[in-house]
Amino acid sequence: MRLEPLRRRHVRRCAEIEKVLFAGDSPWPAAAFHSELDAGGYYLVALSDTGEVVGYAGLARAGRPGDWETSVHTIGVLPEYQGQGVGTELLRALLERADELAAPVFLEVRTDNDSAIRLYEKHGFERIGLRKRYYQPSGADAYTMMRPARQTQEVAR
């Protein structure tokens, strides 16, 4: 598996994966991925040894230099590749980018997604809030989680 920047040629496959993973909660259409790329988001794809897109992840940035804030907008991995470290590698790459900006990282995660919650907690995220009925149309709740900004010196350790 290798990671590379998400390109427009990958968007259709990412949207297809969204339909598999988030069928009950308004999966992102291709237009949403294009919009994120247009906005300058930091998006990656995970490619199998054969070059197939098996996962993707995106980080948005807000603010200005010296006062950045970031948000994990999405992480998705095909079910047959879950549990093999793909999501972990995608998350680590997003966190490295946030660390380069010395920015805190925010995200929302379904309250019933135990494996994702464990992954985020393992990487320094803490629950800071609850968003009732955040995911639509299912009405599932989400935790808001945050990882504080890491300064360059902390990252080097």
From TrEMBL:
<keyword id="KW-0963">Cytoplasm</keyword>
<dbReference type="InterPro" id="IPR006464">
    <property type="entry name" value="AcTrfase_RimI/Ard1"/>
</dbReference>
<keyword id="KW-0689">Ribosomal protein</keyword>
<dbReference type="InterPro" id="IPR050680">
    <property type="entry name" value="YpeA/RimI_acetyltransf"/>
</dbReference>
<keyword id="KW-0687">Ribonucleoprotein</keyword>
<comment type="similarity">
    <text>Belongs to the acetyltransferase family. RimI subfamily.</text>
</comment>
<dbReference type="GO" id="GO:0008999">
    <property type="term" value="F:protein-N-terminal-alanine acetyltransferase activity"/>
</dbReference>
<protein>
    <submittedName>
        <fullName>Ribosomal protein S18-alanine N-acetyltransferase</fullName>
        <ecNumber>2.3.1.266</ecNumber>
    </submittedName>
</protein>
<dbReference type="Pfam" id="PF00583">
    <property type="entry name" value="Acetyltransf_1"/>
</dbReference>
<dbReference type="InterPro" id="IPR000182">
    <property type="entry name" value="GNAT_dom"/>
</dbReference>
<keyword id="KW-0012">Acyltransferase</keyword>
<keyword id="KW-0808">Transferase</keyword>
<dbReference type="InterPro" id="IPR016181">
    <property type="entry name" value="Acyl_CoA_acyltransferase"/>
</dbReference>
<feature type="domain" description="N-acetyltransferase">
    <location>
        <begin position="1"/>
        <end position="150"/>
    </location>
</feature>
<dbReference type="GO" id="GO:0005840">
    <property type="term" value="C:ribosome"/>
</dbReference>
